[in-house]
Amino acid sequence: MKLKPFIYLMFLTFAVAVAQAAAQEVQCVKCHSRLMKRYATPARLYDRDVHSVVGLVCSDCHGGDPAKPTRHDRKNPAEGFIGTPRPAEVPGFCNRCHGNADYMRSYNPSLPVDQLEKYRTSKHGQLLLEQGDEKVATCTSCHSVHDIRRVNEPGAPVYPLNVAATCGRCHSDAEYMAPYGIPTDQYAQYAGSVHGQALLQRGDLAAPVCNDCHSNHGAQPVEVSHISQVCGMCHVNNEKLYRESFHSQIFEDLNSPACETCHGNHGIARPDESMLGLGDKSACGACHPQEADDPGFSVSLAMKSSMDSLTGALTVTAELVRQAEQQGMETSELEISLREMRQSHIQARTMVHTFDSTQVASTVKPGLEMGVKIDDGARSLLAEHDRRRWWLAGATLVLLLVIAGLYLKLKEVES
Amino acid sequence: MSLKKYTDKVYGWLNERMDLDGVIGFLRHKEVPVFSQSIWYYFGGVSLFLFLVQVTTGILLLMYYRPGPGSSFESLQFLVSKVHFGWLVRDIHSWSANLMVLCVFIHMFSVFFMKSYRSPREMTWMSGMVLLALCLGFGFSGYLLPWNELSFFATKVGTDMAGSVPLVGEFIVHVIRGGPDVTGATLSRFFGIHVAVLPGIFTLVLAFHLFLLQRQGMSKPVDWDSFPPEKQRVMPFYPNFVLRELMFWMFALAVINFLAVFFPWELGIKADPFASAPAGIRPEWYFMFMFQSLKFLPPNVGVIEGELFGLMVFSLGGLLWFTLPLWDRWTGTDHVRARWVAWAGVAIVAFIVVMTILGYLLS
Amino acid sequence: MANGTNSGRRKFLNWILSGSSVTFLAAVTYPVLKFLTPPPSEDSAVQAVDAGKVDDFPNNSGKIVKFGNKPALVVRDAKGEFKALIAVCTHLDCTVQYLPQESVIWCACHNGKYDLSGKNISGPPPRPLTALQVNIREGQVFISKEA
To answer: Which of A138, A331, B238, B318 has a beta carbon 3.0–4.6 Å from A90's, enabling a disulfide?
Structure first.
């Protein structure tokens, strides 16, 4: 029996099997990577996608069967082929997997599966799913498509450092947002705010960004009644004091947005004493007449006076301590006290939220007393430094006496 | 018993055993020439005094200083701010170091110009040159010990220069630094050298230098014998010269005090090997002339690298200077030719002064 | 006659010389002796700081003590074990405090929380607190930099 044809046959079978297996993976990509421009994009990008990394292929989302021999059969809707979903279909499209707890458990057990539920409550969800507005954000608007990264990867559009710019793609576009009648300066304001600077300039990932206050999937403007609670997630003491003060009820009755009334929402600046008392930057002065006999404004003036005295004392004291340290004096005790004085300052600023000037004054008092002690300490160190000069001058005088004595002795010896 | 009788008794007891009379008699007989330039004779003694100040303050500093990248700066900070008179001991040590180098230079050049190095005092000159080198070594090693920014980078630049020696340059740098870079290992090495090695060698060479001095007496100026008799004045070493010397020592101390009060030494910023060099690093003033003249050299002189050429010139010059009494046949004999040697010395002093000034002006 | 004034002058000169020399020696000896006397406060950067008596710390309480130029938080947990940490929040440098009701270290500035080993467990702090070593000797609590 001839062996050669047998070997050829085996080889052929083997090759077909390999081709079949390979076909499963690369069939979609094989065509799509050779197509023009935007038809080729998915294939080009997909290697970097998190779904590709965990082993999912085109058909796992888009349906169809790449193993079929003809294109018509591979993309057969009867086989479940979906193709490109319309914007209104996108949330449902992703939710087939991402809303299925059992399915997600096999890939990432701790990932939430309630995104669609939250999305339905959001402004984007309401406009899209109830009114068919296709301009709003869907899953792919923020998470991108075909090159989706994990949220904690710096390249993801929803990585904390990138979130603001991602939201800003639509929300800062005045033309795009024209039909909705809402401002488009949020990103600009945020970038200049204390939170924005912390995030965008210092890279502090802990600083709040759009989704921290507005929610991500359930994005909505924060309701007036809930603003202080949201701010209070981080600014615990400020929120508590505000809530317990008489002013919170007044703001509620006026339907004034709590923290936002004085601090703004997106463009929150670093607060300082100019928010109290007289002047255009005065938050109190925005509602209260800026007159001393207005009961509300007089409280503001009293608080400003307390705060100013502490801020002034802090600046002067810090400078004295710095001088002493530069002269080589031992200032570690003073530095610790200075730190306590700074804490007092922060506490006093927090106390402003009681809207009670006596509380502010009583918080400022220990700070001022500490300041006096530190001042005394620093001044005595500086005085000590000066004293040394005088002592040394005295020692030099003694030396001169010795020289004089030697000289006279010399004269005597030589006579 | 009165104080005088008591001191006489003690003296007598010691004298019986050590022949102190003999020593004092010798000192009384030793004479110091008195003439217009004899003021320069004091500078050797002042250098010795400043060395003693350094040893004393150095030992005191050793009580609190802890070498190491994590403790050098901190222990110094502690010393300067919390230890009683720590600031004073440190300032005296730093200022006296600079004054000692200055006095040693003045002493060396005054000996040169007065030609005291001629026979029979060749070994005194050469041991003195060794002492100068050791003194500069003290300065260089001590400068790193505060472990602040300036000292770190000055040491880096200074040790870099040794690397330009061909063949063995890299090896030398490695050995000096205790590694490829300036690190805690360098600090350990420099500390050991500064407080143990150099003081030991210095003391031995100094003892030899002083022994020669006492044995051979003070040198007289070249034309001493042609002085008229009334100009050939001398004074006894003890007590006259000694008293004068003591006055000078007290005056040096007063100068140090003044400097310590009005120009206190600062702590600086702690050294950070990963930070980039700050602007305006320069060596201590006594190395400035070498530093500046090396800067003026072009990158290449012929086939030799510029820096290497400069180092070669300095080494050659140093060798000639060291062996001066051995090859200078004209000083003391041929007055006309001897002038050339003297003028060469003037040129060297001028070069050093000008380069030092330029070094500061141009930085 | 001349001898008399001379010896009087001599005595006076001797007095000046010996007097000033003695003063000078004293002016040198006094600083040297004071220098050699160790100063009263400890060099806390390298040595240990005495944080107080063991009995001064009730269970589930915290106290701030000075450690060099920084505040340190010494906590005694509910079981009676001591922990010490540098009390400077790693977010924006506020001084942290111990919250007995939650058995957690808390920063009032932005609601950052750390567990008792210093690990940042909630809120803005990006890094844990620096831990210090605690040694109990003869009923006193000593804290020092970790080796």
So the answer is: A138
